[in-house]
Every structure is written in C-alpha cells, then in structure tokens.
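Tokens for chain A. Residues wanted.
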C-alpha cells in the first residue's frame, strides 16, 4: 500500500543507509513502522524472476522471505509461466521507502506483478521503463480479459502455498475473479485478501518468524474462502472520506541504531 510520506519521513527514507545492518537477523516493529537487521538481497536475475525499476525499488528482505521468493520463481518457471517481474520488498535496513509504501518496512513484504504476457530477458534500460499493466477494468468491477488469464490463477495459487505466507493482498476485482474461477481445492483462497489498489500486482506478506519477539504477529485471516459478504462490500463501499491519507508511524526506538548510518 502506498501513501505520500511526510517531509520528515521522506528525508529519513532518502538518508537511509544503502547497506544492510550487520549482525544477526532482527525484525522490529509492525506494518506501519519497523526495521530489519541482517537483511539479504534478492538477485536481479534468478530462475523465473527479474527485478524491475531498480532505480526506484528496493529488494532486501528477511532471509526466509528471499528464499520463498526464489522458490516462487522456480515453481512458476516449472509451471510454464514467464519470468515474474519483482517489485518492492524492503530497504536494506527496512524503514519507510521513498516510493511511499506504508508497509514493506521489515523485510516481510514483497510485490510481485501479475502480468504474465510472453517476454524475453530485459536489458538494464528496459527494466527501468517497464510499467506492468493493470489486471482490472477501469470501473474496478471486474478483471480485464485482455490481461487476466488462467495463468494468473496458477501464480496466485503458487504464492499462497509458499512457506510462511500470512496473506496476499490483491484488488477486490481480482479476488472476485478467483472466487468465480477456482474449482476443486479452494482452501488457499482464504489467504487472498481484497485491498485498495493492487490492480497490477499482488502484495505477499509473510508471517513474523518465530524467533523474532519484537515482530508482532497479526491475527490470521478469518475462516472460509472469503467469497462472501465481506468481498461484496468492496463493490458497494462508500467513497473514501476526504482528507489527508494516513501516514506511516515513526520507526520504534529500537530501530534507531539499525537505521542510523553508517
């Protein structure tokens, strides 16, 4: 989820060290404000994966997050899908991203684009310019058949089966397409949750690792496949109230040493 950052948080994001904090892995804080020590970087090229827009995206995460994303690339490749385009994960030490994400602060979140049109390996320049299309029609009521295919269902199913996945955020129209199009095993749909925006990508959120006491555990998604009145609400909800968007919270005090340079 993206929001405009306050000038203070923009300055903090811009001045953040571009190297991971040394020492053992440590995840601190919550979705709205946190940090990570011991992060590792997703390779720019890996089987089934390519990072894009490297000049404005960050690809650092908890080692388990990176391992799961590499697994997703391998499994997607084995399923015959083209290389996945990878977006933001976290900054090298977490904290607010200059691009405006409220989340993505602890190395436990990753954006994976849903466009699965045939593609070749991108040049460095092409990676900076690529803009994956929306999967959703302009009115927000349904997916766009020009872009949405059965391969997207395969990709989302693979993502939901990754180790440690807490939930996956998608546009409500994408969730509705899954509710309408998935037959057989539907248990994995519980992890696919509708949320604002997310029309071109899925946002994978991983659970706090068990050995990280400073990482608060979220309540799990409710039982069921989510194809119920809670989904219908998204298509009849009132317009968002006027006023400034919510702002990310300042990082916890325990993050100060991690986020400080050098």
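Reply:
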């Amino acid at each position: 989820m993206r929001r405009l950052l306050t000038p203070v948080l923009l300055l903090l994001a811009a001045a953040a060290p571009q190297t991971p904090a040394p020492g053992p892995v440590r995840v601190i804080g919550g979705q709205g404000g946190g940090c990570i020590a011991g992060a590792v970087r997703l390779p720019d090229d890996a089987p089934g994966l390519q990072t894009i827009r490297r000049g404005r995206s960050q690809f650092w995460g908890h080692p388990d997050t990176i391992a799961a994303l590499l697994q997703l690339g391998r499994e997607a490749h084995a399923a015959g899908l083209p290389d996945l385009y990878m977006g933001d994960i976290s900054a090298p030490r977490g904290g607010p991203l200059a691009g405006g994400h409220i989340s993505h602060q602890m190395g436990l979140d990753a954006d994976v684009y849903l466009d699965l049109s045939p593609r070749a390996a991108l040049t460095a320049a092409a990676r900076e310019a690529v803009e994956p299309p929306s999967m959703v029609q302009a009115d927000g009521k349904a997916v766009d058949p020009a872009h949405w295919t059965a391969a997207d269902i395969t990709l989302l199913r693979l993502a939901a089966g990754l180790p440690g996945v807490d939930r996956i955020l998608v546009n409500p129209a994408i969730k509705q397409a899954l509710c309408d199009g998935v037959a057989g095993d539907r248990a994995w749909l519980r992890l696919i949750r509708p949320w604002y925006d997310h029309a071109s990508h899925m946002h994978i959120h991983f659970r706090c690792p068990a050995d990280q006491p400073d990482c608060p555990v979220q309540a799990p998604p409710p039982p069921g496949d989510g194809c119920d009145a809670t989904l219908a609400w998204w298509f009849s909800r009132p317009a968002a109230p006027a006023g400034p968007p919510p702002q990310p919270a300042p990082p916890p005090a325990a993050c100060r040493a991690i986020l400080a340079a050098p």
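Residues 98 and 147 are 29 Å apart (CA to CA). The chain has a mean pLDDT of 90.
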